[in-house]
Amino acid sequence: MRPLVATVDLAALRHNYLHAKQCAPQRRAFAVVKADAYGHGARRAVQALQDIADGFAVACIEEAEVAREVAPTARLLLLEGCFEPAELPRAAELGLDIAVQGEAQAEALLAADLARPLNVWLKFDSGMHRLGFDIAGLRAWHARLKDAPQVAELNLISHFACADERGHALTDLQLQRYAEVMQLGFDNCTLANSAAVLTLPQAHMEWIRPGIMLYGATPFAELAATTLGLQPVMTLTGALIAVRDIDAGESVGYGGTWVAQRPSRIGTVSCGYADGYPRTAPPGTEVVIRGQRVPLAGRVSMDMLAVDLTDLPAARLGDAVELWGAQLPIDELAQACGTIGYELLTKVTGRVPRRYVG
Ligand SMILES: *Cc1c(COP(=O)(O)O)cnc(C)c1O
């Protein structure tokens, strides 16, 4: 068996969920499990959180079907609403909460013949300009949906564009606009993603929507996950599948971009970009072997990558290699690669087995 596994610590996941709840006392939380729970496996994540989570949020009805199988009674929010009118009856059968993010979705809802009314989250475009109604549209649709037979609760949802940059002016503006729209009167309001859960109590409202923080990664460039009280959930572990000594002047890997400056020991690791390890990892990027950091040597290949073991003479064939996780924060790797933990987590590919602990 190929020695590469993504170990998912479900106890850490639960810890992080409870931490989100502690940040926003008295509030309820939709645990965001879209994109297969940010790559961790939605089925197992929902299972692990089921008895403590107030609800779950997903990106589409296909993801809701999976969550519903595991959590028969939980509130399940479709963050982008129904992509076509034909999904509305199914959403009603599944008992979903749905966002309504534009005219077409709102008209389809009013035209639908549903087995039971849905909890509706009217999406307000407070400044992100991706989905949702402007203030005038929101006012109009609030009036039309308020007493519609298809609507149970009429709720308000919006999303921050820059909450991960503390003190950003757009966040204040979005909060201001949101407060204005709240005056229309809603059963429930929600605004806070992880960044706002962690740093913007005035955005907590009735429901929070933590995503990335559940998985133990930080939404902030300058605030580490551990500083925020979060525990890493996924650890990606490969192994040394070959070790060799090379002379000074020899190069390693595709393109021959890494050249040994001294007689060097090179380890080959069972993880590559086809597993989701970023090919963009720059020279100097590290992995952890026997508790010690060693740098990559040369380009990441599809199924393998090379490391410089010269300063770790104890390293042996078969040693475990942590690509990210408990000893090497995913956010550190993401930052070095010019991306975010979100992307690395969601891009761990299907051939990497997930192993659940905790
Ligand atoms: C993904 C998503 C979230 C969660 O965001 P995080 O930054 O991962 O906490 C919350 N709300 C909406 C609408 C989303 O799409």
Give the averaged pLDDT, no decimals: 98
Radius of gyration (Å): 23 Å
End-to-end separation in angstroms reads 23 Å
Q: Which cofactor or ligand species appear?
A: pyridoxal-5'-phosphate
Descriptive account of the structure:
The longest helix is centred in the N-terminal third of the chain and has 14 residues, at 10-23. The chain has eleven helices and 18 strands. 27% of the residues lie in helices and 23% in strands. It is elongated and about 75 Å long. The chain is an alpha/beta fold and 358 residues long. α8 (169-182) links the parallel β7 (151-157) and β8 (189-190). The strands form four sheets. Strands 8-7-6-5-4-3-2-9 form an eight-stranded parallel beta sheet. Strands 1, 10, 13, 16, 17 and 18 form a six-stranded mixed beta sheet that branches. It has a two-stranded antiparallel sheet with strand order 11-12. The two termini are 23 Å apart. The structure holds pyridoxal-5'-phosphate (PLP). Pyridoxal-5'-phosphate binds next to loops. Pyridoxal-5'-phosphate (PLP) binds at residues 32, 34, 79, 159, 193-194, 209-212, 219. It is an enzyme of class 5 (isomerase). GO terms for molecular function: alanine racemase activity; pyridoxal phosphate binding. Substrate binds at residues 130, 302. The active site is at residues 34, 254. Pathway: Amino-acid biosynthesis; D-alanine biosynthesis; D-alanine from L-alanine: step 1/1.
Task: Using brief descriptors, characterize the structure shown.
11 helices, 6-stranded mixed beta sheet, 358 residues, 8-stranded parallel beta sheet, alpha/beta, binds pyridoxal-5'-phosphate, elongated
